[in-house]
Amino acid sequence: MVCNQKISILYAVKHNISLKINNIVIFLSIICVYSRKLHTIIDNKLNNSIIGDTGFKQNQFFIQERKPIMARVYNFSAGPSTLPEKVLKQAADEMMDYQGCGQSVMEMSHRSKVFDKIIKDAEALMRELYNVPDNYKVLFLQGGASAQFSAIPLNFMNDSKKADYIITGQWAKKAFAEAKKYGDVVEAASSADKTFTYIPKTKPEDFRDDADYVYICMNNTIYGTVYKELPPVGDKVLIADVSSCALSEPLDISKFGMVYFGAQKNVAPAGLVVAIIREDLLGNARDITPVMMNYKVQADADSLYNTPPCWTIYICKLVLEWIKNDIGGLEKMKERNEKKASILYNFLDNSKLFKGTVVPEDRSLMNVPFVIGDDELEKKFIAEAEANGFVNLKGHRTVGGMRASIYNAMPIEGVEKLVEFMAKFEEENK
Predict the structure, then answer these.
(1) I need a surface site. Which of 159, 223, 304, 321 has the fewest CB within 10 A?
(2) What DSSP designation does 19 have?
(3) pLDDT of residue 55
(4) Residue 422: domain span
(5) Which residue, of 303, 327, 351, is where some domain finishes?
(6) Taking a C-beta distance cutoff of 8 angstroms, is the pair 330, 129 a contact?
(7) pLDDT bucket at 23, cuts 50 / 70 / 90
(8) Hey, which residues are catalytic here?
(9) How does residue 154 score in pLDDT terms, banded at 50, 70 and 90?
(10) Going by C-beta distance under 8 Å and a sequence separation of 6 or more, which residues neighbour residue 308?
């Protein structure tokens, strides 16, 4: 009898009764939650439509046991990171038809006029937000930040064949190890002695006079440290991986020979790396440099030497628009990020259960590692946090503990609610 009633309702909808299809979907979902034995196959035509993943298919749909739909969680992942909801909604709206062109960005030619405007708009926004000098190229590349570990020495370690690296964490270590394959590369400074919990202070004499460049990782995702002051390299070329702090605050590009970042940390989905390179450094790549890693080749082709990650560049453009139009630029973004970070750090500094791991003067605005000091209690915290909608708080596998990555798109209320949960957990686990 119950099933017959449901069929009657659906049949009425088919004949233009006032109920809308979306309301039927909600109605059926509720029925499925409270009636676990309802697995009847109902054969009806619903305007010959396919509707999302609700179970509706052309000419038929299947009613199955369903769980209540979860609200959007607070995602503290270090990467891929959370993205602005406005950007996600716009991308969803434009998925099938980008601005009336009749196709998705996912399927359009990278040589088309439509995509040409997308990538040029993205570059213009990047230049505007970062105030990129005219004598710098902005490249949209593939391979992520890790590919640059090889590309950088191949392109720039080409005079003395020497380079100095400051080791402040896992990614600087990997870049250093890769560069050693191509020349005389030394460790100018390191914070490994205290598990990378601080940024080492350097002096001009720490760097070799004839080094082709000095390399740093600006923000350390795993350990939660960041450069507040750049190392005193003089007129030497400074190269920085800024993946985890990209577009989180203003940055004087003119002080660098190159900055680059994997987009998935703060800007877009994985699959894109943005490189900003001073033009006079281009054109001296070693003969053995793979053509895809030759920055001059990529610059001459305006990032279109081969098919670029079109969809990711499009999302990057939407994020840049959000930073400019909704946030108000990088100064405003810095204020927003400082507010978020202060909420979390203030709690950690006053907690009797949780403890931050980084020296205060070198704390990152983006990545906040913390510990309890009890493995079982940490596991309990991570599990309960996830059950309450705070996901990806587990620390990196190499260090353990916890880590909250509070990138640009993390709303302030997300950090506030996390702190409320942490306080509750602390009270319950004295």
Answers:
(1) 159
(2) -
(3) 38
(4) 74-85+328-428
(5) 327
(6) yes
(7) very low
(8) 171, 241, 265
(9) very high
(10) 110, 119, 140, 141, 142, 272
| Structural domain ending residue among the three candidates 294, 312, 327 | 327
Q: Are residues 212 and 142 in the same domain?
A: yes
DSSP annotation of 320:
H
Residue 69: inside a domain: no
Any idea which of 5-19, 108-122, 215-229, 381-395 has the lowest mean pLDDT? 5-19
7 and 149 assigned to the same domain = no
Kindly list the distances between the CA atom of residue 261 and the CA atoms of 311, 385, 400, in Å, as whole numbers in the listed order.
17, 30, 25
Of residues 99 and 53, more confidence is placed in: 99
Q: Give residue-wise pLDDT tens across range 291-320.
A: 999 999 999 999 999 999 999 999 999 999
pLDDT of residue 399: 81
Domain identity same for 247 and 334: no
Q: Rounded to the nearest 5 degrees, what angle is found at the Cα of 200, between the Cα atoms of 80 and 392?
A: 20
Cα of first residue to Cα of last residue in the chain, in angstroms, is: 54
pLDDT tens digits for range 232-281: 999 999 999 999 999 999 999 999 999 999 999 899 999 999 999 999 99
Mean pLDDT of the 156-183 span: 96
Q: CA–CA separation, 119 vs 14, rounded Å?
A: 45
What does the alpha-carbon distance between residue 412 and residue 142 come to, in Å, rounded to a whole number? 32
Task: List the CATH number of the domain containing 355.
Answer: 3.90.1150.10
Q: Give the chain's domain count.
A: 3
Does residue 67 belong to any structural domain of this protein?
no
Shared domain for 168 and 305, answered yes or no, is yes
Half-sphere exposure of 184 (CA within 13 A, CB side): 9
**Interatomic CA distance for residues 117 and 105, integer angstroms:** 12
Three-state secondary-structure class, residue 367: strand
49 has a pLDDT exceeding 60: no
Kindly state whether residue 34 falls inside one of the protein's structural domains: yes
Identify the pLDDT of residue 398.
Answer: 76
CB proximity list for 12: less than 8 A, separation 6 or greater: 19
Concatenating the DSSP letter of every residue in 55-115 gives: TEETTEEE----PPPPPPPEE--SSSPP--HHHHHHHHHTSSSSTTSSS-GGGS-TTSHHH
Whether residues 78 and 91 fall in one domain: no
Same domain, 390 and 319: no
Name the nearest CA neighbour of 92 among 106, 72, 71: 106
Residue 397 covered by a domain: yes
Phi, psi of 74 (to 5 degrees): -90, 115
Same domain, yes or no: 52 and 146: no
Report the distance separating Cα 356 and Cα 349, nearest Å: 7
Q: Are 138 and 182 in contact (CB under 8 A)?
A: no
